[in-house]
Amino acid sequence: MKSNSSLSQKKIGPTSAPVDFTMPPMPNVVKANLHVIKDFFDVEIGKIITQDIIGMLDKVYFRSLLINFEEAYPQRNNPTVPLIFASNHSGMAFPWDGIIFTHRIHQLCNYGKDAIRPLTAPMLSQSVLMNPYQIKNFWRLMGCVDATFTNFKTMMYQNDHNLLVYPEGVPGIGKGFNRRYQLQRISSSMVHMAIRFKTDIIPVATVNAEFINPYTYCSPAINRISQLIGIPFIPLGIITPFILLFPWFFYMAFPAKLTFVRGKRIKPYEMTSKPWEDLGYKDLREITDRIHQQMQAELTIAAQTYGKRPYQWKELFRSIGKCIWYFPYTVPFGWPLLFAEFERVRLKNKNMSKKLRLGFLSTLRIILRNPFVLCYFIPLLGWIPLGIKGFRRVKPTKASQQD
Fold this sequence. Notes:
alpha/beta; 403 residues; globular; seven-stranded mixed sheet; two-stranded antiparallel sheet
């Protein structure tokens, strides 16, 4: 296998011209789509979600690690254009890895200009069910934007945050446990944007997230059917009957110690001597395949280095013990209560200053104030009201309709 440096330096033909960092003129379709930058997104709400929910889940349950970030956080090569962070997806699990990584980077950057906004699969925001515990527009409130080509291009014209993409798309999250840490075919649109806007790609190897829902496998035929109703995949394994029996298992995560390893910076615009306008699909695909090779090599090394003990049970139990006052909200069967109380206090009552009252004696109070949450714990029959609410369509953005 070629070294990472040779992968990034090999070019399609010789080149000696300096890089032109001039921002491309904004197309009319982008001008009409600028609303997606601010649709639903509120930095203050994002901070509160982190403080109330994601921060506690990460600290106690996922115990995430950032490798090569805090010591040398990547700075933009082109100051007027966002960097593109790109990571592998984890198969057959709700995207907790993306939630936790976004939280950690926001926390590291204090929600400033160097933080990230994710481009996510449109089906995550198209139905209420695919939002965590059916909090409508949860992804968009966190700053996510549907990953359409028009939206991607639009986000390249904003300078407030960097971007996070999962270039494998739905096939990456729908792969089975037997293909863990095998990077699926990645989209050339990421490379297209990096070359067009002369910005760097920051590869990130996500390790241990494959164990959020281990030993589950996929059926392409079943996945195609599930995608028709807005669910990216149906995991087939030991956990499957529990999802059907107890609805809270739909968002279940095993306590994998999530580890995010920053790889070697990639400069796709230096991998070709052709002007952007002359690049054809074959050229983009060749560069994309080389980037795939680098990302796969780095992912393999990261998994070998940090993935030998994906759970670290002793650390987990110590962590839960230190925060025992917040039990059961620190473990998956308590998450429906936590998210429901957040939605009631913060979003419905629009109270952003009052701290959530959590603790041993708060469970009954939260259930009484959020009676719908009981549906998550009612075997089989609980799926009826959850399904009625969950399969309601969320109004798509104009760009989603166009693409």
